[in-house]
Each structure stands twice: as C-alpha cells, then as structure tokens.
Hints:
The protein is α+β, with helices and mostly antiparallel strands. Helix content is 43%, strand content 23%. It has helices at 12-15, 110-128, 165-168, 174-189, 193-206, 211-226, 234-244, 248-255, 257-269, 278-295, 303-311, 315-323, and strands spanning 2-5, 8-11, 26-35, 50-53, 57-69, 74-77, 88-90, 94-103, 135-148, 151-156, 159-162. The strands form two sheets. Strands 1, 2, 3, 4, 5, 7, 8, 9 and 10 form a nine-stranded antiparallel β-sheet that branches. α6 (211-226) packs across α9 (257-269). It starts with a strand and ends in a 5-residue tail after the last helix.
Amino acid sequence: MYLHTQKGKIGLNRIFPDSWNQKGVKSRIAFTAFEITLPKSQYKINDDPIKLITATYIIIIFYGKLEFPKKHKMYSFGSEKASVSIKNTISEIGFLMVCFMRDEELNIQSLQAEIVLNGYAGISSLSLGKNAILRHIITNSTDYTYYSPIQFTVSGRVHGMPLFEDISGAFISNDTLIKAGELVEKLNKNYIRNKIILSTNWYLKSFSMEETDSFIAKWISLETLCMKKSTDIKPIRHILSKVYTINMGEIDKLFAIGQIFGLRSKLVHNGYRMPIDNKLLNLMDYLIEDCLLYILDASPKFQAKTFINQIGLNVMEHLKSVHKLLIE
C-alpha cells in the first residue's frame, strides 16, 4: 500500500509513527479513503502530505494517487482454507484523504474496525467539511507487519466460501442452460416479479459482503421474497413446509427460522457485531434457493436440507453457539 505523491512513492512504514512500527509485530490496519472536493482557493496544497497523528487514528491529506488492496471479494475454495493473492489497485489522481486505525491485539473483527474508522472519518468531517468525505474511494482492512525502515508487508483480507460442488455446481450443460431460460420465463410471468428481482439483487450483494453484513443481506433477500410484514416470519415457514411437505413445527426444528430471525433482530436493532461462519451463510443461501424455486413453481431441489445433512449441522444448537459470540 503506497501514497504516490508529488515527491514520489511513500510506503506505510514512512507514514506510521514509531509506536505503529514495532519490528516483527503484526497488527490490523483499517483504512478509509476519500477524494476531497476542494475550493479553487485551496488548490495549491503543500507537496508534502498533511498529517494528523494520534495514538490510534491517523489522517493523511495529499495530492496524488493511492495504491491500495482492493476490497475483499468472495472466493470459493475446495476446502475451508486456501491462500489467495490480492493485487493492489491505484486511484485516480486528485486531492486525497486517507484515514488509518490500528488494532495491535488483532482482537477487533475487521468489519467492526472499518465501521469504527468510518465513524471517526464522519466525525472529522464536522470540522473538515462534508466535501472531505463525499467522494468515497475504499474502506478496507489489512494485516500490516513492519520489518525495517525499507521493508514492510501488507496482506489483503478475503472471505472464503467452500465450494460444496455437489449442491452448488457449477452445472454447465445444454440442459441446465435450457432450464435457466425456463426459470427466467417463469420469473417474467410471476405476479410478484419485482419482489423476486429485488430479493435476488440482495442475494447477489451478499456475496460481496463479509460476515455480519452478508448475513443481514441474505435475510433481507429472504424477507423480501417471502414476507409481507417485517415481523411476521410465518410465510417463510409456510413456504418451506410446502417445499418439504412437512408441518411448520417440523420446519422450525429443522431450520430454526425463528432463531435465525432473532439473530437478525439483535444484529439490526441492538447494534451487535459478530463473526458469522460459513455454515450459517451457506444455510441462508440454500433457504433462499428453496423458496425461490417454490415461488417460481419449479421442481424443488431441497438444497437446505441436503446441506445440513451433508455437514451434520444441527441448526438450533449451532445458533445457540452463535448467540454466545454476540459482541457490541
């Protein structure tokens, strides 16, 4: 990660104070960047970056370009763990403001650190003006290790999702392409077409989000698709009971829809942040798929049940352990 200024390329090891540059110590750095809209009267800014440095928070303002790790994307792996290389991207040239926050203990979730940092940037704009934060470039977090005045490492962060190939494919053939066309036709003839399209957009957005935000986006997708009122989850249970031809009580035991809704409510209304694992995120995906196929009057695939059977997941017990991890 570098600042490309009028005087050349500057690395983080030259920006951060000595207290952030402890040799061999790995820390998490959240950063958020903005292109500043300056009045013409302020166009002549110093060649050297302008800095505000505190114990935990840094603001750098400069004219030039920012080279930074891209925001994470969702990657599918053949197993729970894999390594991925993330290439840097470079912003357009302009007057830029970059804010940094450091967590030496690595005990803050990356998403939470980014949220806190954006809060700091928002508060700073009360002094700097809204035009300092109006044009957002990137918010992300990286792992940073200082080795010497000329060497440091920055590791971008990604979210990996196991493939589950037998359930999720990809299945590429003439038959599956024809079926895809038939499903689109069913969509266009469906009386809640707009709701389905909105739901699937939230579903797609969830794959570019991490943990808590991804879970909430998936719930919004399911809620948009199935529910008429924001607090009445009975339609979701009803649709799933039709898919699996069992009563709603059995659906509750199998998929714990009420407990999933309870988790969503705590996250949304109480401001909790927490790590959401791949098991729960995958389950949400397959619940959405089951409901979509039913609403489109297509043949069921029983995705959610196949998934929990495959990994031996007791949803109710798993959610109990998830609730214990809730942090403010």
